[in-house]
Amino acid sequence: MTLSKVNERISKHESEWGRDAGSVVLIAVSKVQPVEKIEKVLKAGHRDFGENRVQEALAKWPKLKGKYPKINLHLLGPLQTNKIDQALSVFDVIHSLDREKLAAKLASGIQKIGKDVEMFIQVNFENEIQKAGISVENLDDFVKICTKKYDLNISGLMCIPPINKDPEKFFLELKILAERNGLTKLSMGMSSDYAQAIRCGSTHVRVGTAIFGSREKI
Ligand SMILES: *Cc1c(COP(=O)(O)O)cnc(C)c1O
Fold it and tell me: CA dihedral in degrees (100, 101, 106, 111; nearest 10)?
């Protein structure tokens, strides 16, 4: 698979399931991928990329952002409060907001640098300890805390469904949770399940291996 194939499939799924053309943002997940492969995708005109780690993003992206304008860099992995300033310096969208302490520090960091960073709240459906994300039962209160108390720019919800389970149930539930909180964007779907995610209303699919090939172990 390549970028053009994935783009083709996304267009096909959009029209198949009555979604507007171009309504699904493809985030090319470039974690652990070499810069040469990333530059190929940039040269093809793609501008939305995702990384999991702040340090890795800082090592790769400031230079690429200087060379290719209008890049949107998305943080997909968990964020520690001691890395917030660094994260805000390189990322444009954060998909892993999941606790009040993080919300508070993001709010003060954003005020300091005056950059508008868009955010997704990550939902952890089965409270898996190895994953970030807020529980479903605490979500509605947390949305209010983020928007009312901290005035953060929350545009949607993100999830990584439990592995070995049908993801569709979780995708559909995420959509319901977003709607009841007045949020319009859904970050869901990866290489193996982005077609289902688009059918369920995804607005942001996060696709790594289907674009770049398998990740080399480091
Ligand atoms: C790595 C990763 C992806 C991309 O996974 P692929 O299976 O390579 O498409 C998407 N979302 C998150 C949060 C990830 O960590």
Answer: 100
pLDDT one-digit tens code per residue, 15-25: 999 999 999 99
Helix (H, G, I), strand (E, B) or coil at 165: coil
Report the C-alpha gap between 50 and 33 in whole angstroms: 11
Q: Tens of pLDDT along 43-95? A: 999 999 999 999 999 999 999 999 999 999 999 999 999 999 999 999 999 99
Residue 195 CA to chain centroid, in angstroms?
A: 16
For 3-212, the fitting CATH number among 3.20.20.10, 2.70.98.10, 3.20.20.70, 3.20.20.20 is 3.20.20.10
| Candidate from 29, 41, 159, 192 with most ligand 1 atoms within 8 A of CB, to mutate | 29
Mutate to test the pocket of ligand 1, among 27, 48, 159, 190 (most ligand atoms within 8 A of CB): 190
Beta-strand ranges (E) seen in the chain are: 25-29, 48-51, 72-75, 93-97, 118-123, 154-159, 185-187, 204-207
